[in-house]
Amino acid sequence: MRTAIVSLLIGFVLAFLVLALSYQPAKERAYKRRNVSPTNSPEYKIFFMFLVVFPILTIVLAAIALVLLS
Asked: Residue 67: its pLDDT value, please?
């Protein structure tokens, strides 16, 4: 049971990373055309959520689940 939860959570983290990294090149191309700073955009905040907040949240939830199951 513990192995299944850990493997599922690793899959979630990898899925979030793939989504965030596949989103990045298209965003950079759009900003090069418009000459806008990427860090001031709402798209950058969405990218930050995918890359940082969701994996950390997933790991925290995994830790709580493992503690409750043990």
From this structure: 83
Question: What is the Cα–Cα distance from 66 to 55, expressed in whole angstroms?
Answer: 16
CA–CA gap between residue 58 and residue 26 (Å, rounded): 26
Q: In the structure encoding, which two tokens stand for residue 13, read together?
A: 């983290």
Say how many residues make up the chain: 70
Hey, CA dihedral for 44, 50, 54, 56, is it positive or negative? Answer: negative
State residue 33's pLDDT score. 63
Distance, CA of 8 to chain centre: 15
Global pTM reads 0.43
Euclidean distance between CA atoms 58 and 60, whole angstroms: 5
**CA-based R_g, the chain, Å:** 16
